Each structure stands twice: as structure tokens, then as C-alpha cells.
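JOB MANIFEST
job_type = single_chain_structure
chain_count = 1
residues = 272
[input]
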Amino acid sequence: MAEPVTVSTDDRLGDYQALTDVALRTRFEQPHGLFIAEGELVIRRALRAGYRMRSLLVDTKRVGQVADLAAHPGAEGAPVYAASQEVLESVTGFHVHRGVLASFHRKPARGAAEVLAGARRVIICEDLNNHTNIGALFRGAAGLGMDAVLLSPTCADPLYRRAVRVSMGEVFAVPYATLGPWPQALDEVRAAGFTVLALTPAEDALPMQRLTAAQRDRAALLFGAEGPGLTGAAMGASDVRVRIPMRGGVDSLNVAAAAAVACWELTRDDPV
């Protein structure tokens, strides 16, 4: 049974306040061990991945359409709040056109060693602090056969609402961990048997298609932030500098697009 909420100041909706305020949400969500999932598809994927629901917030008009979400074993004990679109927008700061949001408990953070132990090919990100790019990168990693993502300590939170939405919930499917101290911890990746491939648009870098079979086999693709790219320290800690050959005078791609191309190139001969 849904509990009606008629005012945006209702304390029961504390998890959903000011969802468009990145600085506020960054300070609030991780310390409180929660994240927000937006939309029915993403919520279902979070439940399927074993995340435990804290609460469900739904447009009053859609309560009957999502009743099975509240009945899922992962939602046991989680209250369902129903509110008008006006209240939803006042609470969250945006028009909730998907009509449903959920707050979830985070799982204990994985360590880099645990993530690497079960992986053959991984992506490593340095200073990637754009949530849209993080989400797109995780979606590409999941769809193109990468086994894990490692993040420098300055990267954006993969479980931030925008990242989760852009990834279409694939952040729940790809194991990830923070890799630090940075960039010294790249030695840990190498010690685990990986070749660290630093992506750069530099003309003297090796074209990706010329990588040897050994370099491809256990590869760690290293990407920097949009604009500045990889730092000199990270580049120096890599094994091979590689590039995606470009045409038409274009020097580089968006980082998420570059990651997708590089992932496809590494995995193109794998069985599907």
C-alpha cells in the first residue's frame, strides 16, 4: 500500500531532495550509503543485481503500474511513497517524466585486487569526473566485453543518478573499484598480469590495430578526462601509448566514444 505524500518538505522524502544539486548529492549519498535509481527499467536492473531498496517514490498516477517493484524480494520492508508530479518536481528539482524513483542501499566497496582477480580485460579511468561520460563508458564496457572498470580516486561516482541512468543500469553489471594511490597503483594492475595501454591522440603513439596478440590478451585500457587527457604521470606509468587513428583533421573522440572504439578493437575476435 502506497503512503501518500502531499508536501515536498515531508521528512520521509529526505533521500530524494535536490537531486540536481551535484555538490549536495555527492556529499550526501556516499556517506549515507545510498544511491538513487530513476525509471522502471533501471530500478528493475538494480533489484536484479542484488541491491536492496530503501524506498520507492512514484507518481500517484502510476502506483498500480509498478506494484510488482514493491513486491520484489529486494524491496522487502521498503516503503512506497506516492506524490503528485508537482510534489515530485519540487522535491527532486526536475520533472520526473519517468514517474518513478527508488533509493537503494549501496553494497560494500570492492577492492582493486578483487576486481582484477576475476578479469581478463579492464578499463582504467583517470580524473573522469563527468557523470554522463562515466555512465556511457560503463554501458560500452558492458556491451563490448570488458570485465571491470578501475577508477582513480578523483573520478565521478558511478552510482550517481545521471551516471546510472546514462548507463541504463549497466553500472550494476560491471565490477568496479577505486584504484589508489594514484598513479602508483598502476603497478598493481601490471603485477596482476595486465598490459597498461594509455590512450592518447599523439601521432607517435602505436595505432591500436597494430597491438600484438600478447598486448591484447590481458589489456588494461587507460583513459584520461575529457579535454586534458591523461596526466604525464599516468602516461609514464603505462606500458604502451596507443591511439585510435583519426581522419578528416579530427584529433580525438569524446572519451566514452573512444572507449567504445578501443573496447571493440580489443574484443572484435572474441566469440559472441
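[summary]
The first strand starts at residue 3 and ends at 4.
The chain has a mean pLDDT of 96.
exit_status = 0
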